[in-house]
Write a structure and sequence with these properties.
Helix content is about 40%, strand content about 15%. By secondary structure, the protein is an alpha/beta fold.
Amino acid sequence: MKLTGGQIIGETLKKAGVKHCFGLVGHGNLGLIDGLEYAGIEFISCHNETIAGMAADGYFRATGKIGIVCLTCAPGALNTQLSVVTAAQDHSAVLYLTGDIPYAFAGKGTYEEVDLNSPDDQFNIMKPMFKRAWKGTNVKLFSQYITNALTTAITGRPGPVLVDIPFDLQTVEEDVKILNPLKHRPSSMPIPDNKEIKKTAELLLSAKNPTIFVGGGVIISRAYNEVLNLAEFLDIPIITSIMGAGAMPGDHPLVAGFIGSYGTELANNYAKKADLILAIGTRFEEEETAIWLDGEIFSVPPTKIIQIDINPIEIGKNYPVELGLIGDAKLSLISINKEIRKILKEKPVKRGTKEELKSKKEEWLNKLKPFINSDKKPINPRRLLYALNRYLPENGIIV
C-alpha cells in the first residue's frame, strides 16, 4: 500500500508508541500533520513555536517518553531555537519535525526560503543545536530517518534531534516498509565493569564522611530508589545539584538539600566536610561549585570523588576523580548496592546521620521561622514557598 511521506512518518511514530505531538500549523508542515492525524497521533496546537518545544521538553521530563514537535518552515522552525538549546543543555529527548521549502525549488527564492549562504540555510542554521540532524531528501528512507532519530534522542545521554522534511516530499507517495523503532534500539544501557563496582564499594565503606551528590542524570535514569537504598543502607547524607533537586524527596531524613551559591548552608557544609563524594549524573557546574573556587563548596583534594556519568566527557572535567565510572546511573547503582550488601552481609551501617540531620534541619528551620511567619508586604518568598510546600501533593509539578 502506498503512503505519502507524511503518512510514512506518522506510521513510524505510531509503531514507536507516540501518542502526542506539539506544534503549530503552517503551509510547510501540513503534509506532516496529515500524516500524524492519519496515524491517530494527537496534534496539540500551541501559541508559538518556543512554547511547543518547551511543552515537548516538559513531556519528556514528566513521562520519560520522547517529546515530539512538528513545525512549519522558517520563520516557524527558527522561532524555536531557545527551546532546542534548553533541551540540549538539560539533556531532554525531543524529536523536532520541521517542514522546509520544496526540495524541487531550493535556491530559487521560494516563499520563506532562508538563503543566506546556501539554499539550505534553515537546516544549516538549526543543525548545530541538535544531538544529530537528518535532512529528508528520499521518501523511501523516511521511516529509517525517524527510527534512527528516535534511537539517537533516547540512548546514551538524551538530547534533541532534528528531521527536516521539504514540504513537497511530504505528499509524495511511495510503497515502503514501515520500521518498528522499538526493535532498532539497544536492549541495554552501559554499565561499569565488576572491578570498578568493587572499587567503588570499597571506597565508600572505608570513607569516614561519605556523601552522595545527586545530579539531573538521576532523574533521567529514574534512579531515585537506588540512590535512597544506598544512602539508607550506609546511613550517609544526600546533597543535590539544582538540576537534581527534584530527584529526592526534600523531607527525607537523609536529604540535606541542594548545594552551591543558591544552595542551603546545611548541604554546603556536608559537601565541605566530606572525605568522599559519590557524584551521580552531575556536571559540577558553576552554581554548584561557586565557580570552582577551591574550598568554597568542594575541596578536591583532599576530598576524593567517585563520578558516575553516561557521558565520558563529563568524567573529571572540572575536578580530578579518584574513580570515574562510565554508565547509566540506575544500572550502576543497582550493581553498587548489590556489592555493598554482599560485603556487609545485609547488615546496614549506623552512623547517626539521620539524627544529626534532623537536628540540623530543625535548627535551620528555626532560623527561617521569622521570614516564614512574617506578614509584611511585599510578601516574603520564604512564606510563599512554605505554603506551597504544605499544600502541594508529593508528586506535584511546578511550572
